[in-house]
Amino acid sequence: MRVYECELCRDSGVIFNLEKNVGYVCSCQERKKLKRLLKSYNISDEFVHKNFGNFTLKGMDKRVVNAYMIAKEYSDGLVDRVKRGEGLRGAPWMGLLGTSGCGKTHLVTAAAYPLIELGVLPMFFNWVQSFTEWFAYYNKPEEAYKVDEIRQRIYNCDILIVDDICKESQKDTWIKEFYGIVDYRYRKQLPIIYTSEYFYQLVGFLSKATAGRLFEKTKNPETGKMYLAKMLLAENEDPLALDYRFRDIF
Ligand SMILES: [Zn+2]
Question: How far is the centre of ligand 1, averaged over its atoms, from the C-alpha of 35 (Å)?
C-alpha cells in the first residue's frame, strides 16, 4: 500500500468534491511551500529545539554564562527592532567564539529563532557543509546557475548566520567567497551572526580585512556594547573544560 504524505489529497495537491464537481487546492500545499522556503534558508527542525529555555546554565563555566547573556540581549535587541518596524539593517553583528562543544550553535540558533516567529527568515550557513554543497553546483553544468542564485540570497538575506567559520578547511576559494559576503554585507549594513572555534587565528586564515570587519561590527555604535563572546580555553587548560558533552562524565 502506498503511503501518502497527505492523506487528504493523496499528494495530488487538489481535493475534488464530486458532488459539486469542483476541485480545491489542498491545505497541504501551503505547508509544503513553507517547508521549501525554510529549506532554502537551511532552517531545519533544530531551530525549534534549540532555544534559550533549554540551554543549561546550571553549573556552567562563567564564559558560557556570559555568552548566553550576550546572545539573549542581542536576540532581544533584534526582536525589538523588528517589532518597531525598523528591520535589521544597521543592527550590530554577533560573534560567539569558542571551543568545540560549548554550545555555540545552540545559542546562535536560539538567538535567531524568535525572528522566524516574526516572519523574518535568517539564512543559516554552515561553513563546511554549506560551502561543500554550494560549490558542488559548479560541477553540474545544468545546475551551475544555482551558484549565483544562492550567492545572491546569502548576500541579501535579512540576517545571515555563519556557523563554524574556518572549521576543518580554509580553502582559498571559500576564503575568497567569504570575503565577498562579509564585505558586501558590511557595506550594506546587513547583520551577520557567526561562530568559530578560532579567535585571533581568524586574522591569519581569513585576512585582516575580513576578520577585522567581523570583529568591528559586533560593537553597537550607539551603546558601545560588544556582542562578541569568547568561550576559549586558556593555555594548559583541560581541553574538555567547556565541553558540555563531557560535563556529566568526569
Ligand atoms: Zn494535501
Answer: 14
